[in-house]
Design brief:
Strand content: over 45%
Largest sheet: 22 strands, antiparallel, barrel
Length: 795
Amino acid sequence: MNSKKIILAINIFMLIPIISSAQLHSIKGKVLTREGKPAAYVNLSIDEIHKHAMTDSLGIYEFKNIAPGTYHITITHTGLETKKIDVIVSDGNETRVDLIYLRENSAQLNEVIVYGKWIKKYKDSASSIAMRSDIKLIETPQAVQVITKDVMKDQQTLTLNEVLKNATGVSNSTPYSDYSIRGFTSYNTMMYNGVDGSLFPYNIEAPLFNVQEMEILRGPAAILYGTANPGGLVNLITKKPLNYERFEANIIYGSWNEKSLQIDQTNSLSRNKKLAYRILVNASDNGSFRKRKKTQQLFITPSLSYKFSDNTTLNFEYNYFNVNTKGSGWDDGTLVRQKPDGSWDWKNMPVDFSVQSPSDKTLDYGHTFDLSFKHQFNKNIGINFLNRYLYNYEKDRTHYYDNADPAYTNDTINRWFQTYDFATIQYQSDLFATFKFSTGKIKNKLTIGADYTRQGVPRYVNKGVPASPININTPDYSADNSSPDQNFQQITNNFSNIYSSIAFYIQEQAEISKYLKVSAGLRYDSYSQKSHSDFVDYSYDSTIYPSADTIKSHAWVPRFGVVFNPKENIALYANYTESFEPQSVNAIAQGGPFPPLTGKSFEIGFKADMFKNNLSATVDYFNTAYRNMLVPDLSDSTGQRYQAINGFYSKGIEATAHGNITPGLSVILNYSYDKVAYSDSSAAWSKNDRQINVPKNIYGLFLNYSLLKRKINRLNLNVGFHHESNRVASYSNQLYVAPGYSVLDAGISYGIKNYTVYFKLNNITNTRYATGGHSSGLAYAGQPRSFRITLNYIL
């Protein structure tokens, strides 16, 4: 990459915020009873920034040191109704709010909109994902990006895969919830509400109907969250109960007969507003550009919240899902034909071609229980207790290609028919406490925590038999049979794999001065992983071959960070962080015990809040080394032993800007350059070979413009552009490279009273492209031109 361009980009990001330093303002107003008398000692709170105020004897209140933006203020008092108002803080040193009237003993909540300059919320100023406590992003010693609900609504995204194009350095290469961050691809990079792990199976795209906000942490996060790869993680924050009445519904229709209904209902269940509920429903019946594939989904998420006091809250959330896919919930991808000269015809790949049969089907269902408790003893001491129990089940009947590379020979794809029946479980409990104190002039924030995890597959059965091959020119699926009474040749039975761990960690954040903050932490994990399976191949004999392995090990994970704030809206930061992952095998007969997989990462960066704190920008450089990857030991004549070697490295730069340039113009801008290659050679790869499905360059731009005139202030126009460079798309063939691609999207929405209509057109130019692959001759096709119409109703 041209070094002059890098230096120029960094200089631009560093100069702009110096010109546009942040200014803080105040919000003032008055609260009266219905009779017009002053409402004294009424509590008011700003939800986004956790600020509180109280009216005086004349009913007057004031919030000080408020940055420009849109805020939601909640007004509560015993014996009076609760109200919620929206306030827009824009230019000027003081924002005056219209008189607020509270009725006595009314259970009804009225939303009051104080109209001014409407600002879309594309920026969040704080996040707890990096440090386990709410802290300003400008003071966080790591790259963190927040994607708000306004972004998801304007883009009309329904799944995690759709919205991740806004995330810097993130690429989705498959049709599943599987994506790479900084070149590291893994399913264990997802969290919900700060608890590790997805709520849904790997083959289901995580839905967004229940998501309020999304946080992307780039770089290792093992010190707080345990086992994970060093690329980073995504934390989805779900919608919580509100203590006032609100109803929202979405009716969605799109290409390939996509049909969805979403319902969101919340309200208080008690007169004192302490007990509240929320229920979210998402039902859909969707076709696909992948031929003969149809999916029916049902998600139901009820939740309860009880507020014992302003300092104590208990939340319960239940998630149920049922997904039925015809044409297989597992997709091997589409066909890429080889030309006579040996190259691959990416431009003409048939996006609807499928190795799977129309008779294939997959059933997934499961549920999750989440319980969280938060208590603040005083302004300096608080505790959080998070618990999750998860159970998912999958039953799959699918035709697959035979894992050859290339995937077809003489225009023929050899296939297997396989059945899977398995369950996954997870129990996780996280307890951590925060302590604020001073040592001289140094302000300290200490976090101490302990985690317990038990997760894995308690039961798994797999049966397979050779199936009829198909010709890539004239595929014929008529001979396919998914009957469960077939004479299966290969059977894996009594398989189980359970991982459990207990961990302790401590983290210190010290504010040396208003200009300098430092942090350090240490985590200790003690973990075990037990696996067992019985395998038989009846094509050879009927002998059952049992195998088992037990991994017991531990890991120490350190972390160091420093932030220098020369101005309140500018930061220079650096950090060193590590991660760990258990090995897949550890038996002595296989060369074990082995040390865990580790990632060691160094990162430096620059952050700024610009345009009166409405736009955030980050530029960073990172260098990560991935070690102790297991490869076959070539000196072992039995072929059973492994050895641990240096894995691969990932290094590059990233730049992000998101927020508002003007009150009506919102923007998301991202760029990343990432070189990911193997550090050593092995039997499977050579030194400096590229990692599969990792593009070197990713960049994109999304602009949303809201008309500010009062009569049409609910008209929005937006456009988005996303580009990813080429990538190796085969595990064993470095010459099988999927070309880079660019996609252009556009949307429009308009609201009248309680209704808003959204129209989104994706891939306007109908670009034919592949997001990745696994074997030469097959690839995962990107979505062709498509549309989505949504009718939104809010009461």
